[in-house]
Design the sequence.
């Protein structure tokens, strides 16, 4: 699964939220400053060409819908991030969450407990 540009990700987030939509509906939900309609349309077509979206034709209009699940994209994105940027270093990952996301010891204990239950349950 390819990484998405910021605009592609914004558009996919809307499709995941809406389920299906016409390009003009996507335009209505994009945050200001909105990109030009032609940019949005070409981005949607690119996402369709890459296998992220499909469409149903209604006359000359196309209603698009996602082919990939948000969870699958997030899993792929995180796996790439973990292996590429953190070099598969679990300590580095944990350190990031503890420092940057201010994960406290109480939350860390909950995570360890959940992992133990998963491994033994």
Sequence:
């Amino acid at each position: 699964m390819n990484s998405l540009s910021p605009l592609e990700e914004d558009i996919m987030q809307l499709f995941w939220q809406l389920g299906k939509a016409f390009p003009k509906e996507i335009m209505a939900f994009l945050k200001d400053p909105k990109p030009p309609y032609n940019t949005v349309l070409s981005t949607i077509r690119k996402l369709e060409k890459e296998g992220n979206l499909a469409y149903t034709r209604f006359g000359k209009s196309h209603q698009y819908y996602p082919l990939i699940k948000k969870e699958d994209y997030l899993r792929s994105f995180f796996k790439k991030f973990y292996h590429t940027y953190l070099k598969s270093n679990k300590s580095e990952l944990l350190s990031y969450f503890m420092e940057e996301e201010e994960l406290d010891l109480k939350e860390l204990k909950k995570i360890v407990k959940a992992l133990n239950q998963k491994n033994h349950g």
User: Anything to note?
Assistant: The chain has six helices and two strands. The mean pLDDT is 91. The helical segments are 6-18, 23-29, 37-49, 70-84, 90-99, 105-120. Strands lie at 53-58, 61-66.
